[in-house]
């Protein structure tokens, strides 16, 4: 018996996604919004990792609320995700991800969503993941800052690495919910597409 | 001939490394990720990873923000 939440899913999608485990590395602007989209689609299990606590300045783009300020992001996000789909399985890791531990933390994930802030961390995560699990996809975000220019945001893929964003804009241009959430939703969309085995890929 | 980002083409030379391709393209980004025929090449390998003739390279800029 599948949940009525997923009554609008396309045929075969609910059963496939319920079996899926997706990792989310970072639960900020990208990770929190991507996780919401993944749970709404029916992903059965998420591994969420972030050591930070919610700050007021996060609320401009991250899926948190005033009452979450001061809470661990993974715990606050878990509450929001379970408020959408109570049966979703969530592995919460309130730890600092490093090149030494990231592959182990996400060992059960079929796909990893890279949702870090810093470009240096994006790179070591890509390298760690590809070295540990060469057959598994990683969905990276790069270029989501500033305003507008929606048409410059795209998915570019090379092998198992998929990049979402404009590939240019840097956080020095500011971070705004609309543009960050587009890229986060795009990352979730790519992950769902890969899990469903899109014949176009 | 090498193809870069499905768009640019440069002449291949025997012994060409990933670093040679990046220099030829004149990239100035501080942080990039490079694949050769879909396989990730880590930064430590740029100077000695040979690029075969006909290869397709992708060079992705990694920008701060999340």
TrEMBL record, chain A:
The keyword Membrane does not apply. InterPro entries: ThiF/MoeB/HesA, ThiF_fam2, ThiF_NAD_FAD-bd, Ubiquitin-activating_enz. Residues 14-198 form the THIF-type NAD/FAD binding fold domain. One of its GO terms (biological process) is cyclic threonylcarbamoyladenosine biosynthetic process. It holds the Pfam family ThiF. One of its GO terms (molecular function) is nucleotidyltransferase activity. Keywords: Nucleotidyltransferase, Transferase. The keyword Transferase applies. NCBIfam families: PRK08644.1, thiF_fam2. This is Sulfur carrier protein ThiS adenylyltransferase ThiF. It comes from Eiseniibacteriota bacterium. The gene is thiF.
From TrEMBL, chain B:
This is Sulfur carrier protein ThiS. It comes from Eiseniibacteriota bacterium. Signal peptide: none annotated. It comes from the Bacteria. InterPro entries: Beta-grasp_dom_sf, Mopterin_synth/thiamin_S_b, ThiS/MoaD-like. Pfam families: ThiS.
């Amino acid at each position: 018996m599948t949940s009525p939440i997923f009554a609008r899913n396309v045929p075969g999608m609910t059963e496939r996604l319920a079996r899926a485990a997706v990792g989310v590395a970072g639960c900020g602007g990208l990770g929190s919004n991507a996780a919401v989209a993944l749970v709404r689609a029916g992903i059965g299990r998420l591994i969420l990792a972030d050591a930070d606590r919610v700050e007021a300045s996060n609320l401009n783009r991250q899926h948190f609320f005033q009452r979450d300020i001061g809470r661990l992001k993974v715990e606050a996000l878990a509450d929001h995700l379970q408020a959408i789909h109570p049966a979703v399985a969530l592995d919460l890791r309130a730890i600092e991800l490093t090149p030494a531990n990231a592959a182990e933390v996400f060992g059960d994930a079929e796909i990893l969503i890279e949702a870090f802030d810093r470009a240096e961390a994006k790179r070591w995560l890509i390298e760690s993941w590809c070295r540990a699990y060469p057959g598994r996809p990683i969905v990276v975000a790069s270029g989501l800052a500033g305003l507008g220019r929606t048409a410059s945001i795209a998915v570019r893929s090379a092998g198992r690495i998929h990049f979402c964003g404009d590939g240019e804009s840097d956080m020095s241009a500011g971070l705004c919910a609309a543009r960050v959430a587009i890229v986060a939703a795009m990352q979730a969309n790519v992950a769902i597409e890969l899990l469903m085995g899109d014949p176009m890929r | 001939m090498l193809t870069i980002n499905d768009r640019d083409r440069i002449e291949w030379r025997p012994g060409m490394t990933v670093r040679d391709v990046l220099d030829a393209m004149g990239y100035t980004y501080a942080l990039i990720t490079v694949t050769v025929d879909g396989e990730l090449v880590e930064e430590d390998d740029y100077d000695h990873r040979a690029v075969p003739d006909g290869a397709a390279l992708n060079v992705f800029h990694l920008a701060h923000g999340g």
